[in-house]
Amino acid sequence: MKYFIFLLCVLYTDATQYNDRPTIGVLSQETYSTQHLFPGENYTSFIAASYVKNIEASGARVVPILIGRNRSYYRELLGKINGVVFPGGATYFNQSNGYADAGQYIYEIAQELNDAGHHFPIFGTCLGFELLIILASGRGRIENRGLCYSYRSRPLSFTTDFRCSKMYAEMPDDVVNILRTQSVTVNAHQFCIFDENLRSHNLTNDWRVTSYSTDNYGVPFISSIEHRRYPFFGTQFHPETVSYEWRKTSDIPHTPDALTANRYFMDFFVKESRKNENLFPDKTEEDQHLIYNYAARFTGALGGYYEQIYVFEPREFVLNYK
C-alpha cells in the first residue's frame, strides 16, 4: 500500500521548467538584532547575506524587498520577479509598516497571482515559516503560534505521506536518509507551530505537514509544511546557515552530509521559481533592483549573529517615501 501511494505521488510530479534567469525577492526586516553593531547609523532594515548566497548558489539572483512601503510597491515588484523568500530573524509581527505588514501584502498578492494562473512561489524560513501560518490564520491580536525552546540541530521525522508533497516528492533517498537519521537541520527559535495551531484556525485542509522535529525539551513541533493549492513552502529550520554561518556558539553542523541535505531546499525553491516567467522590462531597471548595488558588511567580527548582512536606507528616507 505504501508503495502504491509513493508511485501515485511521483506520477503527479510537475517537472516543467521555463525561466533560465530567475530572480528571487528576499524580504528585509527591522534592525532590532543588528542595529547595535552600527552605532550612529540609522538604517531601517537588513537582510542576512547567508540567504543571498544560498539563493545564488542555486542559480538565481536576488532582489531585496524593503519594508515600510505601500501595497503598490510590492504589487509592482512581484510582477517582475519570480518568487519571494521570507527569511528568519528576530522581529515583531505587530509593528506597523514592518516585516509582517510587508509579508501580508506579498502573501495576498501572491495568492491573487496564483489564482489568476501565474505560478508565484514563496518560501518561509523559521520566522518566515511562522509568518506564513500566522498570515493564513488571519493575523489576529493573539498570534497563532506557541512558545517552545529549540536551539539545537535535529533530524526530521517525516509524515507518512511526505512523498506526496511537492517539496519532498523528488528528494533523493540518500538525502531523505540524512535528514531522517542525522541532526543536520538547524533550529534557533523560541516559537513553534504545533498541530493545534492548524486545527484551531481550520488550516488542516489547506496546509500539508511534511515533517516534525522536537525542541530542547522533547516537545514535537511542525518543522516543514506546504500549501496544498498555492506554491507556498516553509521550514522551521535554517537550510542557509550550514554553508554560510560560522558562529561558534551556535549548533550548526558543517559536515558534508549536512551540506548535501540542506542544499536541496533552495535548489528546490529556485526550480519552483523557474516556472514563473516574469521579467524586468529592461536590463537597466533590472540592474537597479539587484542586490549587487549593496555591499555586504562583515558583522561576525563585531559579535553579530550573522557573518555578513546587507543594510538598507536611513530612516529619514523611509519616513519621507511616498
TrEMBL record:
The keyword Cytoplasm does not apply. It catalyses: (6S)-5,6,7,8-tetrahydrofolyl-(gamma-L-Glu)(n) + (n-1) H2O = (6S)-5,6,7,8-tetrahydrofolate + (n-1) L-glutamate. Its EC number is 3.4.19.9. This is folate gamma-glutamyl hydrolase. Residues 1-15 form the signal peptide. One of its GO terms (biological process) is tetrahydrofolylpolyglutamate metabolic process. The active site is at 126 (nucleophile), 238, 238 (proton donor). Belongs to the peptidase C26 family. Transmembrane segments: none annotated. It comes from the Eukaryota. It is an enzyme of class 3 (hydrolase). GO terms for molecular function: gamma-glutamyl-peptidase activity. One of its GO terms (cellular component) is extracellular region. Pfam families: Peptidase_C26. It is found in: Secreted, Extracellular space. Its main location: secreted. Keywords: Hydrolase, Secreted, Signal.
